[in-house]
Amino acid sequence: MTPVHGLWALDLLDILLVSVLFYRLLILVKGTRSAQMYVGLLLIVLIGFAARTFDLIAIKWIVDSLKTVWLIAFVILFQPELRHALAQFGRTRYFRSFLRGESYGVLGEVVRAAETLAQRSHGALIVLERNVGLRNFVETGTRLDAKVSAELLVTLFSPGSPLHDGAVILREETVIAASCILPLSANPRIAVELGTRHRAALGLSEETDAAVIVVSEEGAGISVAFRGQLKRYLNEGELRSELSRIFRIRPEEEAAEPVRPQAHDESAEKAAG
Question: Quick one: a GO biological-process term for this protein (predicted)?
């Protein structure tokens, strides 16, 4: 590639990046009070560009003199949108592996909800999406797109709620959908006393890398299904520890370990111990 072609390529890349940046900002402010300010900012930029192109000395001097002030004003005016954009950038799959600590707040809400539901003997099935998308299962339920909180989860699984049947699916900090249908495990070696919720949790854990929390109505016990294994009768501390362990596993480490279908009743071993 000649130097001239290299300069053209850099110019095209520069234009492309600026276009993408302005487009993303436009998407962020669309439908907000900042939209009109964004249009005004673009107008000022165009005036400054025209002043330099046509050598309008007075306009160019004004634009150059207020350049620093406009930069500060831009940060102040668009602070919520900039914060939201940076948060979305940090939630991409590539960077999420470096920021797993952010999920611990969500795990705390989930643990608190599971403990409350167990105390009330309300059955629940909570799915925490990891690396494998669960879109097919989300489409079987009712879309919510609400922020995760213990209060919301407890309300959804209350007997009077129209969405208490089925599973709730969480993605990062969002309750994606409720009343979702999960596949039942066909493993014949599962303990006979396990009900539909536990079999559904194991079925999904055998097909995906999701972590599935089960709260039993009868025994008020809390279980976690992951990679075809079911850990039962967990207390609050054990549940928190198990979820933290699962979300610390990196994709490359998980790929080296195959799914192991439940072969026996682990709760019997725990009781015997």
Answer: cAMP biosynthetic process
What total number of domains does the chain contain? 2
CA distance 159 to 120: 11
The answer to whether the CB of 50 falls within 8 A of the CB of 63 is: no
Strands 124-128 and 142-147: unpaired
Q: Which residues of 72-93 are buried (b: 16+ CB within 10 A; e: fewer)?
A: eeeeebbeebeeebeeeeeeee
pLDDT of residue 241: 92
Count of other CB atoms within 10 angstroms of residue 105: 11
**Could you list the residue range(s) of the whole structural domain that residue 252 is in?**
100-272
C-beta of residue 196 within 8 angstroms of C-beta of residue 175: no
Distance (Å, whole) CA 168 – CA 144: 10
**Per-residue pLDDT, 57:** 82
Q: Check residue 266 and give its pLDDT.
A: 46
Q: Each residue of 222-255: pLDDT tens digit?
A: 999 999 999 999 998 999 999 999 988 766 555 5
Nearest one of 244, 245, 248, 202 to 225, comparing CA atoms: 202
